[in-house]
Design a protein that fits this description.
Elements: E1 5-9, H1 13-26, E2 32-36, H2 39-48, E3 51-57, E4 70-77, E5 88-91, H3 96-109, E6 125-130, H4 138-151, E7 156-160, H5 167-170, H6 179-188, H7 193-200, E8 202-204, E9 207-209, H8 216-220, H9 224-237, E10 242-246, H10 254-260, E11 263-267, H11 273-288, H12 292-296, E12 298-301, H13 321-330
Parallel strand pairs: 1-2, 1-3, 3-4, 4-5, 6-10, 6-11, 7-9, 7-10, 11-12
Antiparallel strand pairs: 8-9
Helix pairs in contact: 3-7, 4-13, 6-7, 9-10
Length: 334
């Protein structure tokens, strides 16, 4: 048995099966998932291996819950008429995504709960996508790269660091928190990075992503020193195989991120003389700053003509000609 268990105890076996399947697919913070349909069974299991998080259905609750060895206990509230006190309550009947997000966010904020670090795993590969000329297709291309890697079975985190993205409109969604909230939390609680990631992340075509900044000025306030820490935490302490950075100069850690990147893909337009001049200017700056290591890992590429026709298909952009293009750039067959 693993040492960090996420346990659900409820008499509703159909609910247990659905929640267990969801958690195993989502795999939050590398928890081991277990379910029990009685408090007595959960109690006996906890005596062998204490639980990290325990969810207990309001209808199955009894006084023996107090004897269960668990770092944090949440009551899955149904009608709220049971009179249970002393535990955090969370609504049982809501979307599973909202339920787990709420629990992990509260858990991450609890100073009494243990942190976790990624140990014994390979370094996460960092890929940056950037356009010195602010090419409008940069985010489309970066997302296609992330999706192509996810299709190969890699675990991918996509971070959009552009000042404006339009994601809420294109994806028909809303964000209450964004990537800067994640950064400020992790800077103060680095050992709980995985919990905060799992509480905030969204998923698109198998790619996890953090909601982009709602106000780019929040990105500008993150210092270069803090960017160094955040980048290193993602590379060495996350559980992703790849992090794809959709990069802009709003990051004070711009050069550090480029230097840490295993590969850098610079989007350009070779048919435009002005675009070529901007790319040469960018390269000249790197040489002047003696950051030639960045140039060694830099590859230029172009998007296919009429890529704009597919720009609204972000949830499956890899299935468009844009996806075919970036697969070629990444050296991925098919």
């Amino acid at each position: 048995m693993g040492t960090r268990q996420f346990v659900i105890c409820d008499r509703d076996t159909d609910y247990l099966k659905m929640l267990q399947a969801y958690l195993q697919k989502r795999n939050p913070a590398d928890f081991e998932i277990a379910t029990f349909d009685t408090v007595d069974k959960a109690l006996r299991a906890s005596e062998e291996n204490a639980f990290e998080i325990l969810l207990v259905g309001e209808k199955v609750y009894d006084k023996d819950v107090t004897k269960i060895h668990a770092a944090k206990v949440y009551i899955l509230q149904e009608d709220g008429l049971s009179g249970i006190t002393g535990y955090s309550m969370v609504a049982k009947y809501q979307s599973m995504e909202s339920l787990i997000t709420q629990i992990l966010d509260a858990y991450a904020l609890d100073n009494n709960c243990s942190g976790t670090r990624r140990c014994g795993k390979n370094r996460t590969s960092l890929i940056s996508c950037y356009s010195p000329q602010r090419h409008g297709g940069q985010s489309v291309a970066a997302l296609a790269m992330a999706q192509a890697l996810a299709d190969m079975g890699h675990k991918v985190l996509y971070l959009n660091l552009m000042p404006f993205t339009g994601f809420e409109e294109i994806l028909r969604t809303g964000y209450e928190a964004d990537v800067t909230d994640f950064m400020y939390f992790v800077l103060n609680h680095s050992d709980k990075l995985l919990y905060k990631l799992d509480s905030l992340k969204r998923c698109m075509h198998g790619v996890d992503y953090l909601p982009p900044a709602l106000d780019f000025s929040d990105l500008l306030q993150v210092s270069e020193e803090d960017w160094v820490r955040i980048t290193d935490l993602l590379i060495y302490n996350s559980d992703y195989t790849h992090v794809v950075m959709d990069l802009s100069e709003t990051c004070q850690g711009f050069y550090h991120i480029l230097e840490k990147s295993d590969r850098i893909y610079a989007l350009t337009d070779r048919s435009c003389a002005y675009s070529g001049a901007i790319m040469r200017h960018f390269k000249n700056v790197l040489e002047t700053k003696e950051r030639t290591a960045i140039l060694e890992r830099l590859s230029e590429f172009e998007l296919p003509q009429q890529w704009q026709e597919h720009g609204s298909r972000l949830e499956n952009i890899v299935a468009t000609p844009v996806g075919a293009c970036v697969k070629g750039v990444l050296g991925i067959g098919g």
